[in-house]
Predict the 3D structure of the following.
Amino acid sequence: MNKFIILVYFILVTGQQLVAQKYIARQGRIALFSYTPVENIKAENNQVLSIIDLSKGRIAVSMLMHAFIFEKALMREHFNESYVESDIYPKATFEGEIIDFEPLLAGEQTRIIKGNFTMHGVSQELEIKAKINYVDDGYQLSGNFEAIVDDYHIKIPPLLAGNIAKVISVDFKFEYEPYQE
Amino acid sequence: MKMNKRHLFLGVFGLLIILILCGYLYLNQSHRNIKDEEVRYTLTSSELEESFGISGSEMRIVDQVIQTQGRITALDEKTITIDKKIDVSFMEKLPVGLKTGMKATIKGRCVGYDDLLGMVKVDQAILIE
């Protein structure tokens, strides 16, 4: 009988550990900034989805372009219709690997995430520095990188060239919790 | 002659003011108010999900105001999941009494389909029932 209880306990404990192999962030935040002498533009998406697979050290991010919120309605219209063409390319994705990720390391670790970022139908290989914080069986991941508008074949009309920066600063922040499929 | 010049000046000045005003209004158009917009499509959660498999229908439904209903399968402060298919984020905090398993009818803007989890996303939603 005792052996049976130990066996059940063992299965339960190891079972739980197996379940928590994937972590999910459903309301990740991505903010875009464009700084020019003419105007500063900021856009925010608070519905970015991301999954980390601990067993492979891999990370996937997926965001819908229509979910970006702008200060002005006209900026949003230009962004969706003319620049990223959200009807044709509705989402941007990132798939990559967290190099030397130590999932059980308590506190903060700074790691390089290497992978492919796809936006406007164009993929670019990126290396992004990110801070990862392990707290209460969850991870916080944050950082920023720069995206060159030209790299993603996004065309800005000459008339507005002064209003939109050639390099967009991208901030990201995710809070992950264990994911049960 | 003097009078004419004055008229011309006033005319040009007036025109300039109108142009500036038009420009200002164009640049500062107000945001959509999903809450007050009329519902364009009323669908079940399954119909909503399936509309993303049919080519062409996706273009019609994205960025439109939709109404849908189903059972709540997950929820937190400002979001609910309906029938494990539709991820809805609300503009305001949800009422306290709401629990998983309850039926809900919502109105919101369809943002698109996220194939990472296989879910349709709806934002700026309000709870109807």
Notes: DSSP finds two helices and nine strands in chain A.
